[in-house]
């Protein structure tokens, strides 16, 4: 008797189907049939990446739960569980599954069940492998078509939800009412009693594209909200600010928001992202979602004074007409004083005080803080000019100090940058002190060895354990003179003093100050002093 092949598929979306290739499960109680299908068909050429098998409907059901096939090729009549029963159970779990039925029986009940499951096509024994292959290709095409249709529908739905989320965030009550009166292709509460709140996730210094960041973020947040039985619609602004309008409970206490905040922190922690999470106030009815959104945006200002990867909950506070006057701290004059005194300890204490004074509950705007830090950066630069210090070049975008400051998204970043700047300042002060000590050693060595006609820069550099090139550069930077010029000046100064003593002949003086060649000494002396040694002695009235 011929085996009838029935095929059915449902074009429902399934995230497990995202791969190009597919998996197939063969379910038949006849081992010969299973082995024949496994070994006689080139499954890879059909786009099937993996094939598994089971010997009855029950084992087929269990195998499908773990193997997660895209297509099942199954007998109908089998012990323990029929192919029809197995298909019905699997369809409840995965409506997108495509199943091809094989049967050598044509009784009406099985045929009716197959038709109910939209089974099509049949082939009689002996099994035609080519027809099996064609049917598998049909099933594969149906799965692919289902994916595309479901993906298109999911994308359209996501856009509709995001559009509503944006409208409710930005629109006043009157306009929001018109949005909610439109037909929606998803469930959304429009009554005036449902409690909503908005939370924001603001990302900082993000290196991902918006699509990549969204793909990372959405499943993480969805898993957290699903676990708390919360529903949401969300959207994004400029790819860095994501906002979620949430509902699902009758009330959201601070404790519940704290719990949600902790869960979101835990879920996002492995992702190596910098962010702040801000919870807006509770509101009743979707018409007032913009109030919750606005409260979260206001609270977001304060996240500038908060560490990354933390959350804040909106707190009602009085809005002051004036903000804290940062000029009352007198930071610029006080910092200038400690820098000019080269007092590192007092400077560090001053920066700690600055940080404390700008933190909440002070009513300080982020731009106020940035402006103050900018002035302090400029003050350090000015002090460096006064003290003739050169700090390492800062990596400032566009060589603009303000651009460098304005890119900071947290007071912690500003504080770290200012601290680094002052550390560089005092490091240069320390280096200058150490360099001055080295110059002193060089001068001391020259004073003790200038009479040696073979004295060289190499001898001097070896004495201070530095390279010749470094010694020359260091000496020039510290004294404004080259090392050779200093040695020549030192010898000529000594010669001038000896020339004032008539007991010494000029040839003796030449040897005493490191010149074995009297003629060379005479030329060098005249070049330095403007007259010969004898003329100098005569001028001094010693001849």
Helix and strand layout, with pairings?
Layout: E1 4-8, E2 22-27, H1 31-40, E3 48-54, H2 57-67, E4 71-75, H3 83-93, E5 98-103, H4 108-116, H5 129-170, H6 173-180, E6 195-204, H7 210-227, E7 231-237, E8 241-247, H8 254-268, E9 274-279, E10 283-284, H9 289-302, E11 310-313, H10 331-340, H11 344-358, H12 366-386, H13 401-406, H14 411-449, H15 457-463, H16 468-479, H17 483-499, H18 506-512, H19 518-529, H20 533-539
Parallel strand pairs: 2-3, 2-4, 4-5, 9-11
Antiparallel strand pairs: 1-5, 6-8, 6-9, 6-10, 7-8
Helix pairs in contact: 2-3, 7-8, 10-11, 10-12, 11-14, 12-14, 14-16, 15-16
Q: Label the CATH architecture of the largest domain.
A: 2-Layer Sandwich
* Integer average pLDDT: 86
What is the end-to-end distance?
143 Å
Described by strand count, sense and barrel closure, the largest sheet is: 6 strands, mixed
* CATH level 3 topology of the largest domain: Alpha-Beta Plaits
Whole-number total of structural domains: 4
| Helical run tally | 20
> How much beta, percentage-wise?
5-15%
Structural class assignment = alpha/beta
Q: Characterize the overall form.
A: elongated
Rg on CA atoms, Å: 42 Å
CATH class of the largest domain: Alpha Beta
Quantity of strands, as a count: 11
CATH homologous superfamily name of the largest domain? Reverse transcriptase/Diguanylate cyclase domain
Helix amount, in percent? 40-55%
